[in-house]
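agent: user wants the structure for Pyridoxal 5'-phosphate synthase subunit PdxT from Anaerobacillus alkaliphilus. delegating to structure tool.
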Amino acid sequence: MVKIGVLALQGAVREHVNSLQSPGVEVIVVKKLEQLNDLDGLVLPGGESTAMRRLIDKYGFFEPLKDFAKAGKPMFGTCAGLILMAKKLVGQQEGHLEVIDMEVERNAFGRQRESFEAELMVKGIAEDINAVFIRAPLIKSVGEDVEILSKYNGEIVAVRQGQFIACSFHPELTNDVRFHQYFVEIVTETKTKCLNV
Ligand code: GLN
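agent: tool returned. relaying C-alpha cells verbatim.
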C-alpha cells in the first residue's frame, strides 16, 4: 500500500484524487502540514501558480515541501504544479520549489490557444495520451539529468528527473489514468527501494 497526497491549497484537487484511486493506493487530500509526514508521494495540481505559492507561504508549506523533495519522495506536478517544480522561470528572479532542472515559461501558448487538446506520445506510458492544455506553461530547456517524456509541436511538455515528473497539460481532466498509474509505479518503486536499504 502506498499513500499519495494531493496538495489541496488551490486548484484541481478532486480530479487528481479520482485519477489516483486504484487498489494499493491510499489517497490523501493534503490541507495540513502534518499530513505530509507519512506520505510516499505528492501531486501538485494545476490551478494558478502565483496564488498557490501565496498559500504555500501563508500556511508554512514552503520548507516542508522542499524537504519532502530533498528526502527523495516522488512528486508529480501538472500545469501550475509543473511551474512550482521548475528550477527557473522565464522573466522571474527565482523559481519556487526548484526540484526539476528545467526552465519554464508560463502561459506560453498565448491567448489564441488558451486551451486545446492534442494526442501525444509520452515515453514509457503510451502513444495516444489525450492531453488537455489550459493556459499551459512550456518547458524551454532542461538540464542533462532530465528526461524528456513528451513534446507537442517540437516543444517540451512532459519531463522526468529521477522520481520527479511534471507535465504542462492536465491528465486528471480526462478518463485516461495511465499518467497517474505511471506516477503510482514511481512511488511504489521508490518506497520499495527505501525499505530495502
Ligand atoms: N497559467 C497558470 C499559472 O501560471 C497555470 C494554468 C493551469 O494550471 N491550468 O499558474
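agent: one observation worth passing along. Residues 2-196 form a domain with the Rossmann fold fold (CATH 3.40.50.880).
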